[in-house]
Amino acid sequence: MKNILLKISMSLLLVLFFSCKEDPKNAEKEETIKSAVSENYNISILIDLSDRISLKKNPNSTMEIYQRDLGYIKSVSEAFTQHLKSKRMRQIDDKMQLFFNPEPENSEINSISKDLRITVDKDNASKKLLNSINDTYSSKTASIYESAIKDDKYIGSDIWNFFDSKVQDQCIDKGYRNILVILTDGYIYYEGTQMKDGNLSSYLTPQLIKQNGLNTNDWQKKFDTGNFGFTKINTDLSNLEVLVLGINPSKNNPFEEKVIKAYWSKWLSEMKIKHFEIKNADLPSNMDKIIKNFVLEKE
């Protein structure tokens, strides 16, 4: 009888031992999940308010460019709030903000953009605030685009200068996962920032691509051997992730999309940005999953 009881006791001990023993893979997975949940986000959205959004110059019968932008911003905002709601209130210390470069002359637009600089931390986090973020971003960004289109004064897109003089200070904070979402057709042009050094330039237009002869089947070879691209910015932005949305190449050159992406990829890589994606303009419903996967780090 004693032997039987001893065997039963030993069996129970073994079961308890193995049930308590942690599977290394599961432990690693749980640690990754905990890390992602507790991570603090610093999301910046840079809007290109050039004439790409003009209803007169670039009408789109399927869905206007500005409406697509608003859909992309909605997805970013929803991903941000989804991240916030996955954290305990005391862990929350996250930010989301919106930029233009150059700033529009319309004071109303600049005033609205200030309301879109949101900081949520343990002191102000509440269900009411978290539930209001998506509606705030949707309504106020819609007002920005409507005002810009109504003004009909498009002064260009100085994304190169934004990276050169503002990204480091305004979009990167230590201890945060820094994400910059750029809404642009891929072209960059601002009258006040035009630099050229050989085949490198601070701007990119359909005319420049044609002028550089990057509109033929051997464009890649010419791009590489001729050292084409954006003017280099000697800044280490390895603590920044970039998602470029809305690439909309001219239909006059079948290689235009690839050339635009080559310019951007080379430039972002030179600034030591390891995680970036460059996506074409598409319907917001098609882009929603892509955007949220990038922001929430889902494969």
UniProtKB/TrEMBL annotation:
This is VWFA domain-containing protein. It comes from the Bacteria.
